[in-house]
Amino acid sequence: MTLDRSRYLFLLGFLLPAAASAQLVVDDTQTPEELVQNVLLGQGVTAFNIQFNSAAGNTVDEQAGSFSNGQNTFLGIPSGLLLATGDVNFATGPNDMGSGSEGGGNNGASDPDLAQASGFPLNDAAVLEFDFIPTGDSLKFDFIFASDEYPEFACSDYNDVFGFFLSGPGISGPFSNNAANIALIPGTTVPIAINTVNAGVAGSSGDAATCASADPNWTDNSIYYIANGDGYSAPQNVDPHYVQYDGYTSVITARAQVICGQTYHIKIAVADAGDTGYDSAVFLKEGSFASTTTVAPQLNAGMNVNDSTMFEGCGPIPFAFVRTGDTTYTDTVSITIGGTSTAGVDYYPAMPIELIYQPGDTLIEWPLTVPLDADGIETLIITITQNVICSGQTVQSVFTFYIAQPDPLEVVTTDINGSCGQTHILSPTVSGGIGDYRFNWSTGETTPTIMV
């Protein structure tokens, strides 16, 4: 058989751009100062005194960069700022390394606050910090923590760590300058790390007791973990839609109450623990570092909610608009709705276009029903416009929520080859789904296992 070379080259040229468009795109040409000003900052924040690894932030560094094309990958954040314990270009998929590293090698480079949060010796620290002045009375930004320490080193001494250390008026915490770490598991005071957010089982090089010492409820945190292959298995090792890291968190929002017009300091840091290998990274959503309005939409934790994601088929979902700060006056906020979801089809009732808070009001509830349908993941984007009294400025904040189908409930059993008269125990493994489930055997028994 002969190969038509011209046709082969044409097909190759046709296929390569499609593969490239599916990959995460990383840019390492901007300085840390440019990354903060041009990529990270959103509305209501003025930043200055930007530093990277205790030096002026005006020099390009391989551990800091920007990323884009996230909407065409499985990452969950379209674009933003990337900090890594190695070269940021390592993030580009597919995931074709079992436990990899690229660049970095800053052996001994640490940070006292990260070291305190981790409890282990650190290396390869990437530390971005700056002062900022908010025009609102709250701060928020969206992030993902990713690591190639997953899944093997979950519950081990190789507990790669990151933190968002906020200090300033009204902030009280155990770190430098009374800083508090706001990189927390939603609804808790537990910092996010390899040993607190993982698949809910110890890795092959770990011990469950190590994770339990970090957080007694560590197995419950698996709802915030996304497995991304092992570097050797399809589709992750061949499909460029996947990033390089073996595991990462879902999109989580860091939040804090601040005083408008006052000066604050934040340190955003990530480091390797115990060694200098197996890179970890923090993805920060573009434009999400913002001083938001005093009114913010919020999803209350429950079986039908995972941070900013609502699962179809369960409801009504306890959606609420929460007012913070000074509540002694009447306040009116305007609401604009966008995204790919449709009111009356993907959710109901329709969102309000205006909210009026009377003096003392802090909460307006708006329960949503999200019916199960055949669509893929959809977005509900809520833009709130408010005149912030303390700063005298009109502040606009954008909040993105997701509507998704829960993973199907799967039950796996092991075949038993037995002889008549023998006794065996059936122990099915259950995964997927959301919320509680129960067993109902044909015998009427309801226990997780059954002897037959």
Q: Can you walk me through this structure?
A:
The chain is mostly beta strands and 452 residues long. It has four helices and 28 strands. Strands 1, 4, 5, 7, 10, 11, 12, 14 and 15 form a nine-stranded antiparallel beta sheet that branches. A hairpin with a 4-residue loop joins β23 and β24. The longest helix has 18 residues. The protein is globular, with a radius of gyration of 24 Å.
How are the SSEs placed, and which strands pair?
Elements: H1 5-22, E1 25-27, H2 32-40, E2 45-52, E3 55-56, E4 64-68, E5 80-84, H3 112-118, E6 122-134, E7 138-147, E8 161-167, E9 180-181, H4 208-214, E10 225-227, E11 247-249, E12 252-257, E13 264-273, E14 280-285, E15 290-292, E16 295-299, E17 305-306, E18 309-311, E19 319-323, E20 331-338, E21 354-357, E22 363-365, E23 378-388, E24 393-404, E25 410-412, E26 425-426, E27 429-431, E28 450-451
Parallel strand pairs: 18-24
Antiparallel strand pairs: 1-4, 2-3, 2-6, 4-5, 5-14, 6-13, 7-11, 7-12, 7-14, 7-15, 8-9, 8-13, 10-11, 16-19, 17-18, 19-22, 20-21, 20-23, 23-24, 25-27, 26-28
